[in-house]
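DM from R.C. (forwarded with permission)

"hey, sorry to bug you on a friday — could you get me a structure for this? deadline for the figure draft is monday and I only need the backbone to look sensible"
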Amino acid sequence: MYYKDANVAILVYDVTCKESFENLTYWIEELQTNGPDKLLIYIAGNKTDLTDKEEVDTIEAANYAEKNKATFKPVSAKLNIGIKELFTIISDDIHNLNKGLPTSHSKDAKKLKSKNSTGGKSGKSIKGCCKS
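My reply, with the result:
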């Protein structure tokens, strides 16, 4: 994985595969240890259209992202749900970061959002888990 001068990392897991979610720990640690200081990390829970097969709860994933200073977005690439919104958040965050404004990762932005809304260690091997 190349991320030397990256501004953003998008980690995608399969909501129907708990093991893919658990593998995020390795990648979060890798990016936080070896990535750029101001790297913005996003976690996308893909295949949200398969609710009957869901193994990872959205609340669990959102809490995990918050704990790891990442932004979480549930998506369905197949049905094009949440994809545009994810990239809009990312572009807004890059813009705000460059202007010295709060990003979706900052506490200030989370306060504004809730106010305005209604309602692995390096060297560890990662194996695949999910079958299409």
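R.C.: lifesaver. Residues 7 and 38 are 7 Å apart (CA to CA).
me: no worries. Helices lie at 18-22, 24-34, 58-67, 83-99, 107-116.
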